[in-house]
Amino acid sequence: MPDQDINQDINQDTDNRDHRTDHGSHGTGKAGPDRRTTVAVITRDRPESALRTLDRLAALPERPPVVVVDNGSDDAVTAALRGHPVRAEVLSPPGNTGALGRNLAVRHASTPYVAFSDDDSWWRPGALSRAADLLDTHPRLGLLAARSLVGPEEAEDPLNALLADSPLPTAADLPGRSVLGFLGCACVVRRRAYLDAGGYHPLLFFGAEETLLAYDLAAAGWGVAYEPSVVAHHHPDPGGRPGRSVRLRRNALLTAWLRRPVNVALRHTGRLAASAVSGEAGAMTALREALVRAPEALRRRRRLPPRVERDVRLLEQRAARARPHAPGATGAHPIARPQGEGRR
């Protein structure tokens, strides 16, 4: 199980770091330094990819501050990260923090906004200024989901279309489309909102952890919106991702027990159990891992407010119509996606 101290620490962070940075010129529409947004990068044992990402961030016209959470690399890699010209603040926790590394990065940021990158992703020039302008203009906006372009060919990530077609009602005080999902390496958060919602949950570690964060932001009254004018680039490793499907199914079930009505959680449990009994690949492992974590999930259980539960059900209904016979479905809505694998 992941170390939960980092998650507890961010909830004790009540300083005003948001306002202590000289943000530079912004809001003029001109390219140039704009330090309203820190870029948080998580990496683990992928020095070439991480250094390439830092190269891209160093070339941005915004010249953003950068925080790197080095999740277990050797001393030589850590030294290379610290020696990069981008002059990132490199944090080296004692072990692999999983998604909680993002919580650590947000806690160390001294800007009002934080953009997340993996060690295989970066931001289009001007995207961070555009995101900061939108966050400045819409004070209830807690998380801005960006458009993600994949690989050298800049293919549209399939998630972009799902987010753009969100069935959730449009909010007059938010930009773009209201959503309850996002890609973890292509989003910008309001630091105060992220801390208010508790950040990424320690029980999930990795795999579809974005869904629970989106739920918690919405439950706390913050808006989550997709805005395609803000663009991130993602160049994932073409190799396989061992264990990913198990983590996704395990965490979809844990999310149901953490936030959904009991009858919904029981239904999701029954579906995964049926898949496990039928011998579906990975289902038994996912169920076993979820059951080990179930007592902690019940201790931390906090039901969503009715308005958020209604939105989740609307998304699930859309998913059921689109994929009525999807094998092994656990009830997760269609805009819950894992983050990139580079920081695992």
From TrEMBL:
Which InterPro entries does the entry mention?
Glyco_trans_2-like (IPR001173), Glycosyltransf_2 (IPR050834), Nucleotide-diphossugar_trans (IPR029044)
Superkingdom classification of source: Bacteria
Bias type Low complexity, positions: 1-13, 325-336
- Into which family does the record put it? Belongs to the glycosyltransferase 2 family.
The protein, known as = Glycosyl transferase
Which keywords has UniProt assigned to this entry?
A: Glycosyltransferase, Transferase
Q: Which residue stretches does the UniProt record annotate as biased composition, category Basic and acidic residues? A: 14-25
Query: Segment Disordered: which positions?
Result: 1-38, 320-344
Q: Which Pfam families match?
A: Glycos_transf_2 (PF00535)
